[in-house]
Amino acid sequence: MKKYDAIIIGSGPNGLAAAITLQQQGLSTLVVEGAETIGGGLRTKELTLSGFKHDVCSAIHPMAMASPFFQSIPLRDYGLEFVQPTIAAAHPLDNGDAGILYQDIHQTAKALGADGKKYLHLLKSMVDSYTDLSEDTLGPLRLPKHPFTLASFGLKALPPASWIAKLFSEEKTKALWAGMAGHGMQPLSNWTTSAIGFMLMAVGHRYGWPIPVGGSQAIADALVRYYQSLGGEVQTGLWVKDVKDLPEHKLLFLDMTPKQILALKGLDLKETYLHQLKKYRQGMGVFKMDWALSEPVPFTNKDTRQAGTVHLGGTFAEIAHYEKTAHQGHVLDKPFVLFAQQSIFDNTRAPEGKHTGWAYCHVPNGTEADYTAAIESQIERFAPGFKDTILAKHTFSAIQMEAYNPNYVGGDINGGIMDIAQLYTRPTLSLTPYRTTNASVYICSSSTPPGGGVHGMCGFQAAKVALNDHYGLNINLNI
Questions:
Q1: Residue 1: pLDDT above 80?
Q2: Domains of the chain by residue range
Q3: DSSP secondary structure string for all residues of 426-460
C-alpha cells in the first residue's frame, strides 16, 4: 500500500486548502472524504425537482474572492466562474424601504441618506486597507504585520453590534447593519459582533458578494481539479473511525470539529488536550430551506428583487431580540431569515422561466423544531404572493444538518461559536491552535482561526504550521 507524506480527512474548502498547500511544496497527499462527493459545505444538489440546482449549505460567497488563499491559485483556469448580483445585499422594511449594500461604497452611502457620511467614516478605511487587514485577521493571534491598520479596525470591530447601531439615525441603516452582524450567529449585544458585520460590508465593497455559476459545488470541483493537477489524490466514500485503517502516512490533517475528533480512534492525544476539546462550545444551529419557484420572488421593494442576498426580519430591534432569544434556546415565530435568489443571476440553476430560493434561520443548537411556516411567513411579509410561487420545497432541521454533515454539530455551520472567548482560541487556548499534542496530527477545520466561511484560510494556516514544524519551510501566499 502506498505511503503518503500527509493524509487529510475531510474535503471541505479547508481540507482542500491544506491538501493543496502541502502538495504545492512537493509532499505526496491523499484527501479522504466520507461522502460520495467532495465539497463539505460546497455541495449542490437537485433537492426539490429535476433541473433545479440548490446549494445544500453555503450559497453566496463574500469571502471567496476576498480570500488570500483563493486569490493565490488559478481557480478560473479550472472551471470556476463567478457572477456578481446587481445588488450585493438588501434589507427590506415593512414600509417598503430597504437598506441596500451596493458594491460601490459611495452609492451605498448615498442610499443611506443622513447616515451616509457616518457610513463612509466607518467603512472607507477598511475597504481601502483590506489586503493588509486580511493578513492580520485571517489567521491565529500573532504580532501584526500592519499594527496601525489592525488597531484602527479593532477599535471599531471589538464593540457589540448593538453599540454601533446607535451611531446611525436611519432605521434602514440600522436594519442593514443588523443583517450583516447577524451572520455571526450570536446575540448582537456580544463583544466583537461588529467584526463580522464590518468585514462582510468591507469585502462587499471591495469584491462584491459573488455567486458561483452552476452552484457552490463548482468551487469544490475547481479546487479538486487544481489539486489533482498537482498530483494530489482523492478517495471518497470512506468514513474513518480509526486512523489505523488509513494508509501509512507521516502527517494527518483533520478537517473536523472537536466532537468528531473526540470520537476518532487512534489519534494518541493527551488527556489534558482532550479535556480542552470537550469544553469547546458550539453556536446556534440553522434550519435550512430550498424552493423550486414558478417565478422570481415578488419583493415589494424593487431594489430587493435585484439583490443576490436578502436579509429578512424587520428592524434592528426585531433581529436583535430574535438572535438573543434563539441563542438562549427558545423557539420564536418571527426569525431572522437569510435568503438568496441565485437563479436571478445564474440561469443554470433552474429550467427556463423558473427560479430557486435558498434560505436559513438561526435556531437553538440541536433542535428538531420545524421552522418552515415561520420562514415562509417572513418572506411573504416582504414579498406578498411568494407562497403562490412555490412549486416544491425541501427542508433541513438543525439536527438533520448534522446528520448530513457531522461538521455541523447541532446545525452549527460555523464550526463553533465565534464569540470573543472563542474567536481565536479555537479549539484550544494556544498561539498555534492547529497543532495537537500529537506532533503528527493537525486540525484544519473551521474550528480553528479564522473560523467559519468559505475561504480556505484555516486549512492554509494549518498546513503552513506543519510545513514549518516538519520541513523547516516558512511559506507565504503569492498574491
A1: no
A2: 4-80+212-279+415-471, 84-209+283-404
A3: -SSS-SSTTB-SSTTEEE-STTSTT-SSSS-HHHH
